[in-house]
Amino acid sequence: MAENTPKRKIRDSVFTNLFQEKKYLLQLYKALHPEDGEATEDEIADITLKHVLVDADYNDLGFSVGDRLMVLVESQSTWTMNIIVRALMYLMQTYHDYFRRTNQNLYGSKKVKMPKPELYVIFTGERKTIPDIISLSKDFFSGARISIDAEIKVLYQENEADIIGQYIIFCKVYREQRKCYGNTREAVTETIRICKDRNVLKEYLESREKEIVDIMMTLFDDEQIYKAFENDIKQETAKEVAKNKAVFMIQKGKITIDEIAEYFPELSEEDRKEIESQVLQQV
Fold first, then answer.
1. pLDDT at 269 > cutoff 80
2. Distance between CA atoms of 145 and 127, rounded to whole angstroms?
3. How many other CB atoms are found less than 10 A from the CB of residue 249?
4. Does this model's pTM top 0.85?
5. Could you give the CA distance from residue 51 to residue 73 in angstroms, rounded to a whole number?
6. Contacts of 15 (CB under 8 A, 6+ apart)
7. Is 160 exposed, middle or buried (0-12, 13-18, 19+ CB in 10 A)?
8. pLDDT band at 54 (very low <50, low <70, confident <90, very high)
9. Distance between CA atoms of 85 and 90, rounded to whole angstroms?
10. How far are the Cα atoms of 240, 247, 250 from residue 283, in angstroms, in the given order?
11. Which pLDDT score, from 0 to 100, does residue 145 have?
């Protein structure tokens, strides 16, 4: 694969890399809670989950603010309402880790102490209508009262004044450059140049430019691999449909085994021999 191809999940990679540094994590918190002018880096702790589910899934970002707040943030470039279900799963696992870390007994009579949860998704894709809130009760159960409910706040506004809005701008600039230059190094370097000129994530981009370029570039073209895999699945499915249809038509006397190639040119000689063997076994 070409060395010049950026990763398919570039925005997620930049997102997680950006907020590994506490000063940017504190900026993120203050963008969410501008009323809290006293929070410090010492109060912020990264509690991002790794390999939560059996398929090695994990959340993008989780952090706590002292013992009073637990914040989970997801970055999404493709819209899905299911993000609230995933966020709820991440939240339960994060609480599980928290109770274990703080040595609290969930089976005891004493009420446990737990930080207040907040769920956010930063949406960086293209969509005409975006809800401000996704509600488990409202959007999945028609507003019915359910045993457990959750809400996730959707952040999607470009704003050069805070780090969330700047990250969204960064993603938009990259999307535009990708349209101009395709999946190339030039699209990546132009994105960085434009954002620095606009004072968008400038300090981060200048201090880690080489690292960021490395993150955005990869030896493996994930998107091409995914598309090739998806195409193989579709072709395999179409072939199975054709084989089954050929067997059915032969059994109904509509065509002969010798006519398979004429009616189903997409099937190989090996496929035709397999069909012949199957038909003969059923005689």
1. yes
2. 30
3. 16
4. no
5. 16
6. 60, 61, 75, 122, 167
7. exposed
8. very low
9. 9
10. 21, 12, 11
11. 95
Where do the H-state alpha helices sit in 49-162?
A: 83-101, 136-140
Average pLDDT score, the chain: 87
Count CB-CB contacts under 10 A for residue 172: 17
Q: Quick one: angle between helices 222-251 and 269-282, nearest 10?
A: 40
Structure tokens at 9: 């999940």
Query: How many angstroms separate the CA atoms of 140 and 165, rounded?
Result: 29
215: tokens are 């993150």
Q: Which residue has the tokens 């998806």?
A: 230
Number of residues in the chain: 283
Provide φ and ψ at 213, rounded to 5°. Answer: -60, -40
d(CA 39, CA 30): 8
Burial class (CB in 10 A: 0-12, 13-18, 19+), 85: middle
pLDDT, one tens digit per residue, over 74-130 is: 999 999 999 999 999 999 999 999 999 999 999 999 999 999 999 999 999 998 899
Angle at 150 between CA 146 and CA 154, to 5 degrees: 140
Q: Are 190 and 177 in contact (CB under 8 A)?
A: yes
The predicted pLDDT at position 233 comes to 66
Residue found by looking up tokens 């960085």 in the block: 192
Q: Which residues pair with 134 in a beta bridge?
A: 152
Q: Judge whether residue 279 has pLDDT over 60.
A: yes
